[in-house]
Amino acid sequence: MRWLSVVAVAVLMVSVALLSGPTTSNAASAAPHSVVPSVQLLGLGRLGESIATTSVSATGNPQVADTLVLYNNTLVAGNFVPGNGLLVDGVAYDPARGEVYVSDEGSSNLSVISDVTDLVVSTVSVNGYPFGVACDSGRGAIYVADQNSNNVSVINDTTNAVVATIPVGTQPTGVVYDSARAEIFVTNVGSNNVSVIRDSSNTVVANISVGTFPEGLAYDSARGEVFVTDDSSDNVSVINDTTNAVVARIPVAAVPIAAAYDSAQGEVFVTNAGSDNVSVIDDTTNTVVASVSLGGAPLGVAYDGGQGEIFVAIPSENEVAVITSATNALLTTVTVGSDPYYIAYDGGRGELFTTNQGSNNASVIDDSSNSVVATVTVGSFPYALAYDNAQNEVLAANYDSSDVSVVSNATSTVTASAPAGNAPDAIAYDSGKGEAFIANYWSSNITVVNTSSDTTVATVPVGSNPWGVAYDPAQGEVFVTNFSSDNVSVISDATNSIVANVSVGSPTLGVSYDSGTGEVFVTDYDSDNVSVINTTTNTVVATIPVGSYPWALTYDVRMGEIFVANYLSNNVSVINDTTNGVVATIPVGNYPDGLTYDGAQGQVYVANYWSNDVSVVSDGTNSVGTTVDVGVTPSDITYDSGNGNLYVSNYEGGTISIISPTGATGPSQGVSFGETGLPNGTVWSVSLNGTTRTSSSASIAFSEPSGLYSYSVGPVAGYLASPISGTVVVAATGVSTLISFVASSPPPPPTYRVSVTETGLGAGTNWSANLAGTATSSRTNTIVFFEPNGSYDLSIPALANYSSNYSNSVIVGGVPVSVAVTFSSATYPVTFLESGLPAGSPWTVSATSDAVTSGQSTGTTVTLQLADGTYALSAAGPTGFHVTLSASSVSVRGAAPPSLSVTFTAAPPGLVTSNSLPWLTIGVLVVTCLAAVVGAGWGYSRYRFAKWKSEAQIWEQEFHNGNDPAGDLPPR
């Protein structure tokens, strides 16, 4: 496929030379993270507030009280990790459920959208860059092509659980359902064929060779044929679905991508990305009968049977073209989100859903007015945070969507949003003006937002690639670090204009204002030091060496100290602002990113990007007291002095973790249940969060702190309850649920509670249980059923990377039944192959994550059983040998990775051997990732999200050699 490219991540081998006798190590440590630079903010509480200098301590252990999921603005109790849409691609409509499934390629999950509310109602994790999606209406299943894992995931559309995984060809991309044959056709672009899956057995029954790089498919129900676009052959293969043979090849225009069948006209419409048009094929003669020119390279296409129209996605124009299928004429165009890729027709509501890869959302088009009626966000990427003490709000800069979310600290929900520039990556609140200053990395400017009205009041051009922002209340100025300009811009908040530019001679990242000395501290990323700027003269008055790649800073007013996160040293330097000397170095998690100071507790909170946690540092002892697990890739953190909580932006997780420093979960709120349909005085009951209450009145009340809770309604003789069970979300206000009872005839037998409780899954994991043919899912650890006396089969559907120990029946005999289900992480063999040692020599390999797993052998093979995760690797052997691993780390993701080599070589004379000092040579794991689809000839390039730690080493080497392009973003 001409528009598909494979991007290989470069390999950089790092050797550490250890000489005998006194040695000095200058080994380069590497590894940065993916994505974008961290945010360095002023998150210091209320500016100018008085903070006591006496010793302070928390009354309990800090913990995540709630998680705010940004893409659907939902507050969930505890540390919840949802799926997050990233690089949305395929889309399919499920008519039985009234739902739309969108593949989120970058996050390996599917977003499930209700076509009634246009909200994301669920996410489903699959395996490896999901792309094409199709609905099998005959079996109520969703079939998803997983590009990187070379298989197709099958999802039950009732439980939204993966029920099967089917190996197919290389790099499956397109999927279509053949309703007459009850089969699924899958294009495999890497093996130039089409796999045919029988949906009754979920097995491949045929593989059909077609043209080069088959991409899209369309099912022609009238002729029993499947049309396949061969985008590098510039033709369409036609497959007879009875014989599974190619019966025709139809030449079309350059780079055919997608196809749609028009049942009214008996025609197939094919988008040609390389020639900016659509070919129309007569399915009787298998010839092109028309060509419709468009203004850009088209990709996705869908047929709207209600209007007799064809909808075509044109990414380069951010629009959808509407073609009248009767005349093959362009009717109109509809502006949608950024880079629309694929389209699905919702016949139930007369709407089209188009995935917008550039903006990580889906546009909903009404086909009667040809206008966008809703935009559904399936991914949000919060990057920077700041606290607005005047409005009691937390401001979150969303890097990918170029806007700012306004989060109320009373309700912990998004109440407004404000536009920003391109890729906002830092934000600071100006209490003097009541404004937020937002650094836009790719726009090279600052957006100034009035936080009362959430409107933009100014845009200030600064240097190249602004990264950090801090507010100086004494001068009424804002300091902006410009990464690629190696300087700091000083903006007057009275005029919103630059009054000075301060050169620091090195790429700048973090910035923090020190109210005690009236100075601004700036991290110099490449020179491993911190510059100190006098805010009166705007000159550099000191330079302080710190750790490797200093990233972020925060000011501790109680101690008069600056805390500096050293990204590659995995530690924090503490600077005394009187002497400008480092007084302590504190080990923290992997790749510390953002920091903030909690004046009430006398603690500094450090967000560790690759550890997915926050280190809590006591400023009295300069030691880590505890570590708090948060969401995925925490990039920044800010302190809210209004409610005393900490807010953490989890960039790739799309969430904000709300940490209570004392472990408090907040005040309890009322949870009430009302009933209708029962005679006066009838006793009924509700169980909520393990507590059961009964009443003979029309209401039952509970009180619970913020969180997500399951409930169930007890049986009432002669009546059926609806709903009989469900969940409630308790946030800053109470919640009410109405239960409707209807008389049953004949009266049902008495039922008894069957509680299925799991252990072993992470908090918030969606799991399900099937009892007597009734399937129920939950994100809590208990699922409740009610059944009459009898014996019932209980099954626990498989979860990716987990196994369950339960395989028995449940017997109900007049009393409630409790069933315990234990999940355990699946492990996979990771094999190491030794070479270079004399036969029978002992050697060891260790893999380190949360714990160390080691294996020893006197042969040539060591195999470690490892669960999903990323592990640092090391090896050792006998005296007199050096050891080299083919990778410094290994990632296990639902399957055994390829074998790794461990090579021993005899140490040259004069070098330290492993007997006196272990010799470890760390390599870098070669990781390749498939990128996605670009148009040939016309240069349309499809963005692939690839983030690998080794990129930082390459970027650093280029920077030192003077080869770094101007404005190039340091890899994270």
Question: How would you sum up this structure, described in words?
Answer:
By secondary structure, the protein is mostly beta strands. Strands 3-2-58-57-56 form a five-stranded antiparallel β-sheet, with no helix packed on it. A four-stranded antiparallel β-sheet has the order 4-5-6-7, with no helix packed on it. The longest helix is centred in the last third of the chain and has 11 residues, at 950-960.
Structural class: mainly beta
Principal-axis shape: globular
Strand order of the largest sheet: 3-2-58-57-56
Average pLDDT for all residues: 81
Unreliable parts: 1-59, 911-950, 959-969
Helix percentage range: under 10%
Name the beta content range.
Answer: over 45%
- Distance between termini? 30 Å
Number of strands: 83
Put simply, the count of helices is 1
In this structure, how is the largest beta sheet organized?
Answer: 5 strands, antiparallel
Kindly provide the radius of gyration, computed on alpha-carbon positions and rounded to a whole number of angstroms.
Answer: 30 Å
